[in-house]
Amino acid sequence: MFRTATDWLGVYREQVNALNVYPVPDGDTGTNMHLTMQSVRRELETADQHSMPAVARAISYGALLGARGNSGVILSQLLKGFAEAIRDCGEVDAAQLGKALRAAQKSGYGAVMKPVEGTILTVARGVADGAAKKADSADMVLENALFEGQKLLDQTPEMLPALKQAGVIDSGGQGYLYIVQGLLAALRGDDLPAAPEITSYAQQQFENEEFGFCTEFLMSEATRPIEEIRELVSPYGDSLLVVGAEGYVKGHIHTNEPDALLATVGRYGRMLKTKVEDMSEQHTEILGMTGAAARAEEEIPASGLVAVANGYGLVKQFRALGARIVSGGQTANPSVQDIVDAVRSVSAEKVVILPNNKNVLMAAEKAMELMEGRAVVVPTRTLGQGLGAALAFTPDTSAEELKDTMTEAAQAVTTFEVTRASRTTNITTKDGRTLAIAEGDVIGLQDDELVQAGGTPEESVLEMLGRGYDGQDIVTVFGGPQKTPEDLDALAERIGKVLPSVEVEVHPGGPDLYDYLVTLE
């Protein structure tokens, strides 16, 4: 049922995107909800499908880890409530299915500090009310749920002024009903419908405003209860959600201070993943959909650019250089399909792919093969090399010509990464030094080769720069999620004293799991 529901929502994903105007008109509700469901499906594929506790855990855990955006995080909590209600059941009959949909509604409302009616929560309430009606079969439970959910969905424009202004129903609520439709379709054995044609986007009715930054984090090993973390971040903005399941904490907030927020949260657990998006830029992209068909007939550029990256500061740099981003990197490698999808989304004769990680290189090359001549790979093995290559990118030059130019530019950049050791070991470096490393120690890598261990992250940076400096001109430092602007300024001052002839630039938003990423060029 959940596999089918994922595919069913996928059919209508763009339609749900086109309805999205609340809480901000960024046009990604359908995408975020579908990505959340896809994460559930991935967990289900590896779960013991003959064990209800295992299936329930896969639903809850998969939803939390894959939750994207406001709608995805709320959906993850609806699914968490559903999963907890079935976890200890030998089977799920009509009555238990109704109870699970009621538990979903309660979990969703409980996750939001200030529940707003006219949203996915309202529709979840309607679904639960319908599912509670007397029914002889699971099919009938879902039919009743859809009927009552649709009634409330139709009323959402009267509950939220933004919906009424745009003349649309709530996008998250519509997405939730599509999921329930998918559950019912699986029971009935219905085929997937054709995707509807999208002719307009509700976001086009709104002016481009400075919405701030959509900021998300995923954390493990939290040292504070979820309620305290929620209170901790609440002063930073609105559209706040901090939720948890299976030992993880997921946060989503709209804020004007993403750096300070992530630095604050990072003190109370192990930050696994962060994402910051400028919502005004998102909105501008949506407004740009108008006339897309007409523009497609214009002459397209010779080359486009796709880069694999994470860390909002690095992502911002790649975007400024013209790249379409595939989210991923160390410990979070994107799939071949993720890269293929990104290539296909670029309007260009051919596309240059920057894998930016040695573990992504093979997937990038496989994606190139699948694109049958529409892509080339510049074999960048670090994010620093990727930035160097991206600086040499020009859309009017053919991808074949760019490959050599960008490869040469990548090789001119030295990359230093500071992270923590995952295990205790002894390593002999290329220059013959033996490093005794304990789990949790600071370690430094130069161009993906371990060259330093011990001390503070800042000492690691300074030691590696001292060894790697050979007359270069610029040092660029990206601070990881737990580093504050003050940390970056202090490190820049220390670098300036050690290497007085270089120009030092600092940026927040380095890669997840790293204290610092530093380039020397």
Structure, described:
With 521 residues, the chain is of the alpha/beta class. Helix content is 48%, strand content 18%. The chain has helices at 2-11, 13-19, 29-46, 52-66, 69-86, 94-111, 120-131, 138-159, 161-166, 171-188, 226-233, 258-265, 279-287, 292-296, 312-320, 336-344, 361-370, 383-391, 399-411, 457-468, 485-498; strands at 213-220, 237-245, 248-255, 270-278, 303-309, 323-327, 350-354, 375-377, 414-420, 425-428, 434-437, 442-446, 449-453, 474-479, 503-507, 516-520. It is globular. The protein starts with a helix and ends with a strand. The relative contact order is 0.08. Mean pLDDT is 86; it is low at 203-211 and 282-298.
Mean pLDDT: 86
Approximate helicity band: 40-55%
Regarding quaternary structure, how should these chains be classified? single chain
Relative strand content:
15-25%
Radius of gyration (Å): 24 Å
> What characteristic shape results from the CA principal axes?
globular
Distance between the termini: 53 Å
